[in-house]
Amino acid sequence: MSTPAELSKSAVVVIDLANDFVYAGGVIADAGGPAYQAKAQAVIPPLQRLLAAARRAGVTVVYATDAHTPGDSELKKWPPHAMRGTKLAEIVPVLAPETGDLVIEKRTYSPFVSSDIDAQLRARGIERLYITGLHTDCCARHTSADAFQRGYDLVWVTDTLAAFTEEAHRAGIEYFKTWYATDPERQLRTTDQVIADWEAARALEPEAVGTGR
Q1: 23 closest CA partner among 42, 45, 4, 51
Q2: Which of 17, 56, 153, 158 could form a disulfide with 128 if both were Cys (CB 3.0 to 4.6 A apart)?
Q3: 4-17+45-74+94-204 architecture in CATH?
């Protein structure tokens, strides 16, 4: 279980919940087709709950979202998508950032390669990252690799992650277990489990004792 001190040193990282990845009309969403779009959209309700709980608990919310420029190396592999300054690069409206959230534009699978996310997290004293978003086997995987090798404690919120197929999602989860998780039971959690953990930690805060909060 988390402690109150750990909450202030934790962040939820929301990866690529941009319009391009989620809704019809997006380059990535259309490449995946309707079945994929349904999977991507299915992570939104649990993410809404998770982010609301994070803000209540004092857990930092971080958005790490593609904002590509024409010369990006990734576009040698994939067609132009989530181009900086376009509507398709914007975070889906129902998950729009709020005051106090950290919004990171990335140009590679992992924000640790193409942004100052590491410096920004360390400046805030962040030590634990809750990994969410798209895609389990690609950007979430590469982000996890870089975070793990930089010493962050990782938790994967499994029902807020998705990939192009269920098989790819499961493969991503198994990869996390094999290469990064030191305590899989603690580190692979559902939204309900994470929220319950945070609420239990908040109940331990001195100001909550005897107040019924």
Answers
A1: 42
A2: 153
A3: 3-Layer(aba) Sandwich (3.40)
